[in-house]
């Protein structure tokens, strides 16, 4: 039960690639990494979730918080590459309607 | 001679006995003696200081270097003793906090407990069990002349913030009596309250429904809650209860849609929290169809026994270690 986060910045876009699990135990780690990025003005964040096989509602809460924070600071937050289980969580909670989610790019070049 | 002086004397005895004979018994006595030291609240640095005094008496010819080395040890032990006492006082504080949390938890349970109503036409069963001390799942029933309303909610985030948030939900719902009859409006109002008052990382999922006991219709609306099921007795089939809608607390202007379902005799409404479907076993996750299978297996029983049995089975599958709060509610039309 672990979470790896890699972070690169290209042309002022922050690319985060997560792998492992986002749950109550690992959520603080993600929050610590993500929150400062969302608080930058006009920030652009792209998070790749294709290697996340489990996410619980606490994990989901981090993305909700990040969404609110980027909006407040005129930034954007994009999620991509969700696995079926993660996608279901975003669908049930209705978050697919309010978040920028692109699941088509999985496995393709940026 | 007071107790402390006695102890110092005793230490001297023990040490010299050991130095003379180097036997196991003396060593063992020395270990036992540390209890006495704790009882008398003699700090580690005091012990070292006594040790130095005794050595000075026993070996008056000790070199200056040795003496310096012991002084150095004494300084180290003073710092150590300081940190240790701080640690002890933190532990005491922690114990106090734990007992306060326990009081808060039991207060919450009493405040939030909802009576399960009894009506002739419905058999209702409820099982709600917290994974930790405080339950992040919430359910509530309100009964009046011709209807029963039921809410099941999951507060995201755990522990105390979730518990406080739940109390807010309860009082917000109590203060919206006129919306009780319109599930979508109730959720819209509640959403505004939640959006204004919770931490950005927190949100709430809820399913709210109103069962009209005159016409046996269930009116409901959902805010991102784990879908429940309807059981149709005529066809002996379970179907998902779809009630799409955004979770409470994300966007102030969210609108919700109201759904309705006609129930016939023997039909069931099954409401749950994601602790039921997200429960992890050594073999993986429990899938929704496994929950259905469990309910089907116990379906012939009175409704309270069904929910109890499903819980017992799931608890067993998780090796009796609940990872998430569990709530399962079933309403069955009897006549």
Explain what you see.
The complex is a heterodimer of chains A (110) and B (335). Chain A is globular, with a radius of gyration of 13 Å. Chain A has helices at residues 27-38, 57-72, 84-92; strands spanning 3-10, 13-22, 44-55, 76-80, 100-102. Chain A is an alpha/beta fold and 110 residues long. In chain A, α1 runs parallel beside α2 (57-72). Chain A has one domain (3-102): STAS domain (Transcription Regulator spoIIAA). Chain A has 3 helices and 5 strands. Chain B is α+β, with helices and mostly antiparallel strands and 335 residues long. Chain B has 2 domains: 3-92, Orthogonal Bundle (Methyltransferase, Methionine Synthase (B12-binding Domains), Chain A, domain 1), CATH 1.10.1240.30; 114-333, PPM-type phosphatase domain (Phosphatase 2c, domain 1), CATH 3.60.40. Chain B is built from 9 helices and 12 strands. Chain B is elongated. The relative contact order of chain B is 0.11.
Topology of chain B as a string of helices (H) and strands (E): HHHHEEEHHEEEEEEHEEHHE
CATH homology superfamily name of chain A: STAS domain
Highest CATH level, the class of chain A: Alpha Beta
- % residues in beta strands of chain B: 15-25%
Question: What portion of residues of chain A belong to β-strands?
Answer: 25-35%
Beta-strand segment tally of chain B: 12
Structural class of chain B: alpha+beta
Give the helix tally of chain A. 3
Percent helix of chain A: 25-40%
Tally of helical segments of chain B? 9
- Please give the most extensive interface between any two protein chains, plus how many residues each contributes: A-B, 20 and 26 residues
Number of domains of chain A: 1
Oligomer: heterodimer
Low-confidence stretches of chain B: none
CATH homologous group name of the largest domain in chain B:
PPM-type phosphatase domain
Work out the helicity level of chain B.
40-55%
Can you tell me the overall shape of chain B?
Answer: elongated
CATH architecture of chain A, by name, is 2-Layer Sandwich
């Amino acid at each position: 039960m672990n979470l790896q986060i890699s972070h690169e910045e290209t042309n002022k876009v922050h690319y985060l690639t997560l792998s492992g699990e986002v749950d109550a135990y690992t959520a603080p780690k993600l929050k610590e990494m993500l929150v400062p990025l969302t608080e930058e003005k006009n920030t652009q964040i792209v998070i790749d979730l294709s290697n996340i096989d489990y996410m619980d509602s606490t994990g989901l809460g981090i993305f909700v918080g990040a969404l609110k924070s980027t909006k407040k600071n005129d930034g954007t937050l994009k999620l991509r590459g969700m696995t079926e289980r993660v996608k279901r969580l975003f669908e049930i909670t209705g978050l697919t309607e309010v978040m920028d989610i692109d699941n088509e790019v999985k496995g393709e070049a940026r | 001679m007071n107790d402390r002086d006695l102890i110092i004397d005793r230490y001297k005895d023990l040490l010299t006995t050991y130095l003379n004979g180097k036997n196991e018994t003396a060593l063992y006595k020395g270990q036992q003696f540390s209890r006495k030291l704790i009882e008398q609240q003699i700090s580690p640095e005091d012990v070292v200081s006594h040790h130095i005094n005794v050595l000075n008496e026993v070996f008056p010819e000790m070199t200056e270097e040795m003496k310096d080395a012991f002084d150095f040890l004494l300084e180290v032990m003073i710092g150590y003793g300081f940190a240790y006492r701080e640690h002890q006082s933190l532990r005491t504080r922690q114990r106090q906090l734990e007992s306060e949390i326990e009081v808060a938890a039991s207060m919450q349970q009493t405040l939030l407990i909802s009576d399960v109503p009894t009506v002739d036409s419905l058999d209702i069963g409820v099982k709600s069990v917290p994974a930790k001390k405080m339950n992040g799942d919430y359910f509530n029933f309100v009964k009046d002349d011709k209807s029963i309303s039921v809410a099941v909610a999951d507060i995201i985030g755990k522990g105390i913030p979730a518990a406080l948030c739940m109390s807010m939900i309860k009082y917000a719902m109590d203060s919206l009596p006129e919306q009780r009859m319109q599930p979508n409006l109730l959720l819209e109002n509640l959403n505004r309250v939640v959006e204004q008052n919770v931490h950005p990382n927190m949100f709430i999922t809820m399913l709210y429904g109103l069962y009209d006991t005159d016409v046996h219709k269930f009116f409901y609306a959902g805010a991102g809650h784990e879908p429940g099921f309807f059981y149709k007795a005529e066809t002996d089939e379970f179907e998902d209860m779809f009630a799409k809608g955004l979770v409470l607390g994300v966007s102030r202007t969210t609108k919700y849609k109201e759904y309705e379902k006609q129930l016939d005799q023997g039909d069931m409404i099954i409401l749950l929290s994601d602790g039921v479907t997200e429960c992890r076993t050594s073999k993986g996750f429990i899938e929704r169809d496994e929950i259905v299978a469990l309910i089907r297996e116990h379906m012939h029983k009175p409704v309270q026994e069904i929910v109890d049995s499903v819980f017992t089975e799931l608890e067993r599958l998780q090796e009796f270690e609940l990872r998430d709060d569990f709530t399962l509610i079933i309403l069955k039309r009897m006549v």
